[in-house]
Every structure is written in C-alpha cells, then in structure tokens.
C-alpha cells in the first residue's frame, strides 16, 4: 500500500515537472497531471529495469528523475495529441 501511495506522490511531482519543462501551457487538470505523471513513473521505471538499473541507490537518484520526467513529457504530449488539445 505504501508503494502505491509513494508512486502517486512521485507521479504528481514528475507530472508537474514535465508540464514545467514543456513549451507553453497545457490545458490539463490536476488529476490528469497526476495520472500522466504516474504513467511516466511506471514507464520510466520499466525502461530502467530493462537496462538493469539498480533500484537501491544512495542519495537522490537523478537518472531516475530524468528518465521518468522525459517519459511523463511524452505521455502528456501523446494525451494532448489524442484529445486534440493544443498547447497555448
């Protein structure tokens, strides 16, 4: 249960970071930002798992943050393209 809550919190932070790094403003609600951030976290962790990246690293795991943020940017871009919404 704690892992699910941690993933949701991490996803909210990653989703907000992804929107911050994207050009323009995105017409997304907070709920969709969290959902797409969680998608970015899950996909990012799967990608890192494929490359056998260690899960227990000391300190802040910068590579995990970068990969998950990039995945969230891609997830948000796909969502905006699929729904026909455009960045302003």
TrEMBL record:
Keywords: Cell membrane, Membrane, Transmembrane, Transmembrane helix. This is Transglycosylase associated protein. It comes from the Bacteria. GO terms for cellular component: plasma membrane. It is found in: Cell membrane. It comes from Winkia neuii BV029A5. Coiled coil: none annotated. It is a multi-pass membrane protein. Signal peptide: none annotated.
